[in-house]
């Protein structure tokens, strides 16, 4: 089963290959790449954020257009939220094989620090592999260095290593389940 990463046109160029290679390193599956079609929906002007669940509907639409049943991860620059959360780094819905990850809070610049390409590529890959991990049936993991650990902050995300823990690697064979963020 192939995994596709769909890139929104606002994502800076040059990230696709470095992120794809890192995700391959974590999950052992080399993702394909596609360009996103159309605009991202789910904008809430009062929050200046996008509803990640509405964005997942867009991912499903693009998958159907491409006649694909394989897991797909959309990468956007739009800041995402879901009901009950101020923000999410990403969201996965295993029932439809759709996931999204946002760069909005992954760049140093968001935190007033100088941008660094490798930091950004590492974080997009860790979050992307995390959401794809959900699509492949993985749950959250208690090991703070495992990609399937759920990060609340950028520090949590940076503490994770570019790998699955041995238990998650062993679980990768199991099937998908419910919605996760
Ligand atoms: Zn783990
Ligand atoms: Zn998660």
From TrEMBL:
<keyword id="KW-0862">Zinc</keyword>
<dbReference type="InterPro" id="IPR012091">
    <property type="entry name" value="Pept_M54_archaemetzncn_arc/bac"/>
</dbReference>
<dbReference type="InterPro" id="IPR012962">
    <property type="entry name" value="Pept_M54_archaemetzincn"/>
</dbReference>
<dbReference type="InterPro" id="IPR024079">
    <property type="entry name" value="MetalloPept_cat_dom_sf"/>
</dbReference>
<keyword id="KW-0645">Protease</keyword>
<keyword id="KW-0378">Hydrolase</keyword>
<keyword id="KW-0479">Metal-binding</keyword>
<dbReference type="GO" id="GO:0008270">
    <property type="term" value="F:zinc ion binding"/>
</dbReference>
<keyword id="KW-0482">Metalloprotease</keyword>
<dbReference type="Pfam" id="PF07998">
    <property type="entry name" value="Peptidase_M54"/>
</dbReference>
<protein>
    <submittedName>
        <fullName>Peptidase M54</fullName>
    </submittedName>
</protein>
<dbReference type="GO" id="GO:0008237">
    <property type="term" value="F:metallopeptidase activity"/>
</dbReference>
<dbReference type="GO" id="GO:0006508">
    <property type="term" value="P:proteolysis"/>
</dbReference>
